[in-house]
Write a structure and sequence with these properties.
Elements lengths: L11 H15 L10 H19 L47 H9 L25 H6 L13
The structure holds iron/sulfur cluster.
Iron/sulfur cluster binds next to helix 2.
Length: 155
């Protein structure tokens, strides 16, 4: 499995600032940001053309980039969202794809460059809600849809 990730060519710190700015800009419009309909379709298109080429986004609909050093955990062959498995090689590469650096080694190193969200990598992520796949992670985050259906799980 190969995936595109251009984060190393774009400073993690800049991406963190962009993330914070985007959140602040979208927040006043949250009442108009709803799942379904034309607005979400626009957001899905936007996320596809921005996050997919930059982060290798898999459109899971439950984005945790700011928790993972701006590294998409869905590119881990095991889709692990709470740190690496026990199979990381001594050179820091993946046990499934030996030529690929472990997504979590990257995530940890990059998180050390983040001034605001660097420590967020220590937060435990809830199980992935697969019903959100293909939807807009930005809208899901702003409307807290990505926190629904978590049952009694508390991160
Ligand atoms: S929305 Fe999901 S798949 Fe896309 S970058 Fe964020 S964590 Fe990765």
């Amino acid at each position: 499995m190969k995936y595109t990730d251009r984060v190393s060519t774009i400073k993690v710190r800049l991406l963190e600032i962009a993330y914070i700015c985007a959140g602040r800009m979208l927040h006043p419009f949250r009442r108009w940001l709803r799942s379904g309909g034309v607005v979400e379709k626009g957001f899905i298109l936007l996320e596809n053309v921005t996050k997919r080429p930059v982060f290798g986004c898999q459109m899971c609909g439950q984005c945790v980039l700011h928790n993972t050093g701006m590294t998409c955990p869905m590119n881990c062959p095991k889709n692990l969202r709470n740190g690496p498995c026990g199979g990381v090689r001594v050179d820091g590469n993946c046990e499934i794809i030996p030529t690929m650096q472990c997504v979590w080694v990257k995530a940890w190193n990059r998180s050390r460059e983040m001034a605001v969200y660097g420590e967020s990598i220590l937060e435990i992520q809830p199980p992935l809600n697969h019903s959100l796949k293909g939807s807009s992670a930005w809208i899901n985050h702003i409307t807290s849809r990505d926190k629904e259906n978590l049952g009694k799980f508390k991160a």
